[in-house]
């Protein structure tokens, strides 16, 4: 089969569409004939040599795919050849075929095309597990989503609105502000012009900036608030004022999905299928696709992500 190899750490040009060995299918695995994959910020870090895949997983980039089941391992009863599926991966999605533990495989939700489904697993699992399972966002509460125009942000805004929360979000331009308002955001803050921590009080914050926003995020939390950090775009270190935390009884979480054990991912995936897929099937939450790029041209898709002009997901199609 062919897959995108990272020939050496570097810019988009190091991504090459090469002939590689077929993946081996373990007893608990599902082999997927890939229809599409999608680009995530983590793939850029992997390309640059800053984010190695977890031990024992595929060396090729790609944290999600959609496709058709080609084969199942001896102990898999949940899926069969011919099923249309999408899957959360630890890697290996930029390829013609990928083998994945059955626990990480999901049906394609109704109303979503087989291609669009490639852009759902990573955002749905990340947003559901962090904002709802860990952050316990409830109806009537306020969610602050940093980077509302990102793949993660566009999904978080829609899901939180669909479940009855008020949503405030940050973006870097007037054009992106328009786009996230159209997705349902109640209040939009341009982070280049305003300090969000002066403008918003939130019960849950989904943060992608890490160190640079830590103090502001704690300031912006309501009493009993929950900050969930999933990205470190603003650095991994910062000083924390514990006094500000204890007087408001706030919690700070920091998590990553990719490194979690398969069974943990399975719990999240099943919870997404039960709680999020019905909202997608009802049209309350839609995939936001910025562009479709041929998979062999993954370098072009990475250039697009690097430029920062996208809103939502960039798909890699076969
Ligand atoms: N921990 C996990 O399990 C997990 C899983 C998935 C994703 N993530 C993280 O989630 C983040 C989004 O991922 P993605 O793939 O959706 O990336 P993406 O589409 O490339 O989005 C990056 C976003 O960062 C925003 N941004 C940059 N500087 C900012 C600032 N100072 N304040 C607020 N926002 C700022 C950009 O906003 P503008 O374009 O408006 O400037 C853009 O929307 C990444 O940091 C990624 O690593 C973590």
Can you tell me about this structure?
- With 318 residues, the protein is α/β, with parallel strands linked by helices.
- It is built from ten helices and 15 strands.
- It has helices at residues 41-47, 121-134, 151-162, 174-182, 196-199, 214-220, 242-248, 262-275, 277-281, 298-307; strands at 2-6, 15-19, 29-38, 64-72, 84-88, 97-101, 105-107, 142-145, 166-171, 187-190, 202-207, 221-229, 251-254, 289-294, 313-317.
- The strands form three sheets. Strands 3, 4, 5, 6, 7, 14 and 15 form a seven-stranded mixed sheet that branches. A six-stranded parallel sheet has the order 10-9-8-11-12-13.
- α2 (121-134) crosses α3 (151-162) and α2 crosses α8.
- The protein is globular, with a radius of gyration of 19 Å.
- The model has no long low-confidence stretch (mean pLDDT 97).
- NADP nicotinamide-adenine-dinucleotide phosphate is lined by residues 40-42, 122, 126, 146-147, 149-153, 170-172, 176, 191, 208-209, 230-231, 233, 255-257, 305, 308.
- Keywords: NADP, Oxidoreductase.
- InterPro entries: ADH-like_N, ER, GroES-like_sf, NAD(P)-bd_dom_sf, Quinone_OxRdtase_PIG3.
- GO terms for molecular function: NADPH binding; oxidoreductase activity, acting on NAD(P)H.
């Amino acid at each position: 089969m062919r897959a995108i190899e990272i020939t050496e750490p570097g810019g988009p040009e190091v991504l090459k569409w090469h002939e590689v060995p077929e993946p081996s299918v373990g007893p608990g695995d599902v082999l997927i004939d890939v229809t599409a994959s999608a680009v995530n910020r983590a793939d850029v870090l992997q390309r640059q040599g800053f984010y190695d895949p977890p031990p024992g997983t595929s060396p090729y980039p790609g944290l999600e795919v959609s496709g058709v089941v080609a084969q199942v391992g001896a102990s898999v009863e949940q899926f069969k050849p011919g099923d249309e599926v999408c899957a959360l991966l630890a890697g290996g999605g930029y390829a013609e075929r990928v083998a994945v533990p059955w626990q990480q495989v999901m049906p394609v939700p109704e109303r979503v095309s087989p291609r669009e489904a490639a852009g759902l697993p990573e955002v749905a699992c990340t947003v559901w597990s962090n904002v709802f399972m860990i952050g316990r966002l409830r109806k009537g509460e306020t969610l602050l989503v940093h980077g509302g125009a990102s793949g993660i942000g566009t999904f978080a805004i829609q899901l939180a609105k669909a479940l009855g929360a008020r949503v405030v979000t940050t973006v870097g331009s007037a054009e992106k502000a328009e786009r996230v308002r159209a997705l349902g955001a109640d209040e939009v803050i341009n982070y280049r012009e305003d300090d969000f921590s002066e403008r918003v009080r939130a019960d849950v914050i989904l943060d992608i900036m890490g160190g640079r926003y830590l103090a502001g995020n704690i300031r912006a939390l309501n009493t009993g608030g929950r900050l969930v950090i999933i990205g470190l775009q603003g650095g991994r270190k910062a000083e924390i004022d514990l006094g500000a935390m204890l007087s408001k009884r706030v919690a700070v979480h920091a998590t990553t999905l990719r490194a979690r054990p398969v069974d943990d991912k399975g719990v999240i995936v099943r919870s997404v299928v039960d709680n999020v897929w019905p909202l997608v099937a009802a049209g309350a939450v839609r995939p936001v696709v910025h562009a479709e790029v041929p998979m062999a041209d993954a370098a072009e898709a990475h250039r697009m992500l690097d430029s920062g002009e996208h809103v939502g997901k960039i798909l890699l199609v076969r």
